[in-house]
């Protein structure tokens, strides 16, 4: 069958690579894709949020399966449009994707279904938010309620940091509609685990775990980003930790969405803080994480197309995973997650099997920057230490005149 991937980032490149290796798949299309994906997918000039053009393309090109990668088209209802057109699509409707699209909805949903998470308050009033910070103290987590590409979150360790974040969101309109209100959350202590699952209704099939590195700079310093690197497996947590997270978080979430008349089909992602009291939800996403997809999918030995189709046909696919480890590092445009230049040549790109492009374009046969996170280089090896050594060995050859990357991905589990 032919597969259509909606989106054009690193996550979609990882999906394209995985589908391209499937004996069940003839041609992989990506809308719009990116310049670095052309070896694994046919990129088509269709906007990822243009439901009409996407459904028309799928119908005309005998697309047997469409997978929607990013969050924005999910919230725009692209899956709804495919369903209405009678086309097979893997992803949640806009109603189900609200679990990511609105942090206030997600928090209230977790309360209704007894899913463990931190305490919180939602407000659109700056003065009320400041009073809450004064009452609760710091550290405190401040989030723009809507989608902000991973940048609308501040972990404030001082009242001055909290005030600056609240001013950005509520007074200076830094995140537009996404910042019409804020969610102030309890600061949770522990270590993070990204746990994703294939979901169809109340059927939940968990993947292996991963850990992301959100801060821009080494030592977990600097502003939050969409993710600067990740690794899998996460040896800090064993099978019992994952089983508890599925039982207490992912399964109740799938059950609750179905119960509320917005059943979920797609990838349900739980960003978890593994506290002394067990796993607590930091955030839900309604799709593969990025960069987690780039380190989890290369470990999947099962056929991805078969897994998705079997699940949607009412089955419960059994997943098999490589015992090897994968570690990936993001190279980003200098200035990210703030302002940065576009159209800058990307040169001396290392040759690697697990090289995933994101914010990359092409001019006169040369890759150029087109976004904040430009590419992710990953390596697969018997151990995380070997994968880390291989990644950084190759990244030394990358021209970093206009790019930067963290040099310590995996530092919490890999000791010198």
- Average pLDDT value? 96
Counted by DSSP, the helix tally is 12
Q: Give the class-level CATH name of the largest domain.
A: Alpha Beta
The CATH H-level superfamily of the largest domain is: ATP-grasp fold, B domain
Number of strands: 23
* Biggest sheet statistics: 6 strands, antiparallel
- What is the CATH topology descriptor of the largest domain? D-amino Acid Aminotransferase, Chain A, domain 1
Structural class: alpha+beta
Total individual domains = 4
The N- and C-terminal alpha carbons lie at a distance of 47 Å
> What would you say the CATH architecture of the largest domain is?
2-Layer Sandwich
Q: What percentage of amino acids are in beta strands?
A: 25-35%
Low-confidence runs = none
Enzyme class: ligase
GO molecular function: ATP binding; metal ion binding; phosphoribosylamine-glycine ligase activity
InterPro entries: ATP-grasp, ATP_grasp_subdomain_1, PreATP-grasp_dom_sf, PRibGlycinamid_synth_ATP-grasp, PRibGlycinamide_synth, PRibGlycinamide_synth_C-dom, PRibGlycinamide_synth_C_sf, PRibGlycinamide_synth_CS
Keywords: ATP-binding, Ligase, Manganese, Metal-binding, Nucleotide-binding, Purine biosynthesis
């Amino acid at each position: 069958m032919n597969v259509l991937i909606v989106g054009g980032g690193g996550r979609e490149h990882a999906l394209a690579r995985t589908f391209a290796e499937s004996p069940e798949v003839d041609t992989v299309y990506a809308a719009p894709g990116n310049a670095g994906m052309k070896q694994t997918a046919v990129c088509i000039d269709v906007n990822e949020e243009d439901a009409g053009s996407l459904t028309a393309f799928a119908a005309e090109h005998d697309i047997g399966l469409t997978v929607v990668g990013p969050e924005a088209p999910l919230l725009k209802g692209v899956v709804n449009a495919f369903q209405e057109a009678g086309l097979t699509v893997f992803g949640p409707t806009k109603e189900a994707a609200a679990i990511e699209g609105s942090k206030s909805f997600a928090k209230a949903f977790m309360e209704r279904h007894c899913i463990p998470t931190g305490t919180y308050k939602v407000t659109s009033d700056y003065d009320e938010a400041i009073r809450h910070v004064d009452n609760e103290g710091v550290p405190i987590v401040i989030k723009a309620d809507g989608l902000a590409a991973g940048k609308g979150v501040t972990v404030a360790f001082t009242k001055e940091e909290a005030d600056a974040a609240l001013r950005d969101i509520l007074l200076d309109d830094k995140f537009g509609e996404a910042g019409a209100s804020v969610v102030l959350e309890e600061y949770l202590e522990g270590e993070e685990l990204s746990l994703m699952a294939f979901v169809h209704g109340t059927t939940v099939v968990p993947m292996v775990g991963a850990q992301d590195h959100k801060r821009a700079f080494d030592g977990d310093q600097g502003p939050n980003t969409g993710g600067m690197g990740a690794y899998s497996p996460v040896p800090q947590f064993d099978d019992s930790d994952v089983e508890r997270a599925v039982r207490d978080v992912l399964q109740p979430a799938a059950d609750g969405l179905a119960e509320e008349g917005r059943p979920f089909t797609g990838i349900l992602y739980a960003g978890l803080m593994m506290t002394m009291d067990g796993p607590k939800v930091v955030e839900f996403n309604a799709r593969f994480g990025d960069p987690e997809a780039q380190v989890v999918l290369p470990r999947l030995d099962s056929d991805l197309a078969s897994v998705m189709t079997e699940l949607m046909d009412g089955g419960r696919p059994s997943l098999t995973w490589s015992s090897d480890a994968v570690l990936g590092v993001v190279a980003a445009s200098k200035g990210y997650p703030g302002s940065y230049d576009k159209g800058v040549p990307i040169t001396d790109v290392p040759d690697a099997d697990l090289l995933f492009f994101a914010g990359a374009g092409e001019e006169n046969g040369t890759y150029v920057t087109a976004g904040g996170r430009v590419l992710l280089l990953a390596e697969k090896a018997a151990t995380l230490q070997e994968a880390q050594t291989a990644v950084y060995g190759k990244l030394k050859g990358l021209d970093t005149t206009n790019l930067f990357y963290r040099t310590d991905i995996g530092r919490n589990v890999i000791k010198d």
